[in-house]
Amino acid sequence: MKSGTKMVHAGVEPDPTSGAIMTPIYQTSTYVQTGPGDHKGYEYARTQNPTRDALQKSLAIIENAKHAVCFASGMAATDTLMKTLNPGDEVISINDLYGGSYRLMTKVYAKYGIKFTFVAMHEAEQIRQYVTDKTKLIWIETPTNPMLNVVDIRVVSKIAKEHKALLVVDNTFSSPHLQTPMDLGADIVMHSITKYISGHSDVIMGALVCNDNAIAEELLFLQNSAGAVPGPQDCFLVLRGIKTLHLRMEAHCRNAETVARFLRNHPKVGKVVWPGFEDHPNHEIAKSQMKGFGGMVSFSLKDDTFEGAVKVMKKTKIFSLAESLGGVESLIGHPASMTHASIPKEEREKTGVVDSLIRLSVGIEDPEDLINDLEQALG
Ligand SMILES: *Cc1c(COP(=O)(O)O)cnc(C)c1O
To answer: Taking the domain 3-242, which CATH number applies?
Structure first.
């Protein structure tokens, strides 16, 4: 089945009691049993919920995987995966990963005796020297935030397999429409559903996706044991969002390309980062593993000052100044003072997060309006 048809139909079947084409919101905490232990497969809503089941089925299908398990946020999904580790285990992680994942690893799980090593991965072979017989997970994100570095999933998967470590890919920035890491050798895919999959800036949710039955069973065990489950209303909203994921992603990609090319020709703009440019250092890898280059664009100003960037961000009218990404509306953000504020200036500048760096989550509005908005703000 092709991507668009999959997005519209994945996991959703007419409701058995009424034939409702949309999966109902089963807003219930428990299920009546006809006798002790005699029930329809549902006992208590932390453990199972039909709306959540439909969403989990859908997520597995759109990621070309066998299993998906949903959580109350992207961080709750990552937290669950960390709980599968034991003291002494080692994790190799990309060095410019999402700040929240970095915080969870270094501030929460490091103290339980798990060792995290953060490595630059634009040349994936470099990972090899850090792998030991204790390495249990290799954690990558591609493209990364906000510098849009792209990691070669196939190469990292090969290294992981050689060492019997699991490869986890945070696929949030790509969405399953543009990239399906399971097809490239990933063992587990993590999502902040909050972003593109939900797509309408109204839900916080996360998911883990895998093929291995034993891993899925452990994740479901932890989902039930720790209890960070999403509510049925949110599951319904995400099921609705998935139906247009392919259309939205194509519009995000088109608009991001238009915006990136406009910025590149603007006299006040310094560097523009977008994986679709042929001179992006990982352009060929992006082309080989993604169906499109995504909706994110980062750029700096020629006059590289903090104040200059703040001025631009205060002036945009369609681009709203806010954290997050992946919604239908365009957002503008300043990594140096927002997502990366806790990282010392010298450290963040080493990875390209300079004072004037601006990150755009390009929405699906009309591209002319987006260009005009940026033009007047830069002016
Ligand atoms: C937002 C985000 C997360 C965390 O997800 P939440 O839903 O906010 O908990 C993880 N990884 C990436 C790449 C993100 O953008």
So the answer is: 3.40.640.10
